Amino acid sequence: MTYFRKILQFAIPYKRFAILNIICNIFYAIFSTLSFIALIPVIQVLFDKTRRVAIKPVWDGTFAELKDYGSDYFNYYITERVNEDEVGALMLICGLVVLLFFLKNLFGYLSSFFLTFLRNGVLRDLRDAMYHKILGLQIAYFSEKKKGDTISRITADVNEVQNSFLSILELIVREPLTIIFTVIAMLTMSVELTVFVFVFLPISGFIISVIGKQLKKKSNLAQEENGHFLTIVEETLSSLKIIKGFNAEEKFYARFQESTNRLKNILNSLVNRQNLASPTSEFLGIFVIVIILWYGGHMVLVEGTLNPETFIAFMALAYNILTPAKQISKASYSIKKGNAAAERILSILETEPTIIDQPNAEEKESFEEKIEIENINFKYEDENVLKNFSINVPKGNTVALVGQSGSGKSTIANLITRFYDVNEGFIKIDGKDIRDIKKKSLRNLMGLVTQDSILFNDTVRNNIALGKTDATEEEIIEALKIANAWEFVKDLPKQLETNIGDSGNKLSGGQKQRLSIARAVLKNPPIMILDEATSALDTESEKLVQKALENMMRNRTSIVIAHRLSTIQNADNIIVMQKGEIVEQGRHAELLAKDGTYRKLVEMQSFE
């Protein structure tokens, strides 16, 4: 219940609906009990003429006599009606019973009506909180997680918590109150018989608890397997070309079947255990009813200590306990499943981000002088990816980073944008450590174009205006022209309003990359970071993209991570990297003249 109590904090904004639900449940429990109690005087007056009261009773003012006074007065009222018109009296009594059952069901509906707003409000707020947390967590967190598992937590687990929400509110309000009011009524009829009944209830409760002992464990396994299953689906959809190209359909289908078979077996065990709760509780309830019949019948027929009409109403009340008792047993299972789901949700919500703004972090509106990288060391896991790395990038200069794969080039881009923090050393902008600048302010100074053109299943306009949502159509078209992208966008069916498909798959690689460049151009940042922006393009597309990059980098400070010579030969400074360290640096002609690592890279065309 620890995790579930934390989730219940999300219900605080909807407490008015919880209060209304509780009030309606109180009335539901009251009318549920009264509807059965009303049967006693009905039976007494209609079928036992000796119980008719001809003289109007008088209350002596003591609380102890209140019950007898209320019963006698009701009998007197019914007797008067019977004496006047027996059929009319019967209709009156039947109408009273119908009214009580109507009020019971009305308040039952109203309690569910108010609970709906609470449940769906919590469902929305939980999803909003999880998505907001996902956006705020560092990129490193998700490099260790399966996407499918995260999707499972924000969908299936949140739904499970929502369903459990209904169960717990019924568990703590409606059903217990129904049982309490019913037991009070039973005690007023016969203390001895009520005590006898409750000797058997703890035995029933123990048996039911044994059935559900491992439910939370099974539920955890089901939710974890559901996450694995969604991961396979996500990987399949995003990698369908490769799967088909390597004829790996059967292999992936086998993996999928393994997961769904495991999920089937876990769910079979889980659902069968849960389904066992209802018939078990009902059988045990009927068993208790039979014992009441035997013991209460003995009191009526042999001992004569209980009236037959009271015993009939007592039996009805005893059966009235069965439904809420059964609901409580089902709710307890649901809560165990919900608690397992809540644990998985809270593992995300309670994760503290490691890339955060310092308490004294400042806003930085402009870039004036230079970027300094001083003696930084960085590692993703155990081994350093960068070692004592230092460079200066003066304002307006273009600095290129080259080297073989794994030399640490892209890591520099991740550190400057503060997707990761350095382990040692400093990265400064205009002399200020980037950790002392607010993340949003820092990233406002930068434009990013990556090797993979990350586009969204949306229109051209919305993809381009991602960093500047208030951009005019003229500004967007100008950015597209600078990026050499307007030439194909103007020919699209709806131009700027054309949807480009999932990940922009309706466009070619070169077109997607030029849209990515246009997005960065429109943002118009003073610092541009290009992470292998042309490495995945064919020669013709590369020329168009290269022209777009030159347009974009004009009068800007640029850090270019490159594989292709054409991107960097005009750079002010070329940094040659090897295993996280700088081995050479200088302009293109100077490095060729040195006849060192850079020249070998050029000759091998390993970055072309």
TrEMBL record:
The keyword Methyltransferase does not apply. It is a multi-pass membrane protein. Residues 19-337 form the ABC transmembrane type-1 domain. Residues 371-604 form the ABC transporter domain. SUPFAM superfamilies: ABC transporter transmembrane region, P-loop containing nucleoside triphosphate hydrolases. GO terms for molecular function: ATP binding. It is found in: Cell membrane. It comes from the Bacteria. Keywords: ATP-binding, Membrane, Nucleotide-binding, Transmembrane, Transmembrane helix. PROSITE patterns: ABC_TM1F, ABC_TRANSPORTER_1, ABC_TRANSPORTER_2. The chain crosses the membrane at residues 20-47, 89-118, 171-189, 195-212, 283-301. This is ABC transporter ATP-binding protein. It comes from Christiangramia antarctica.
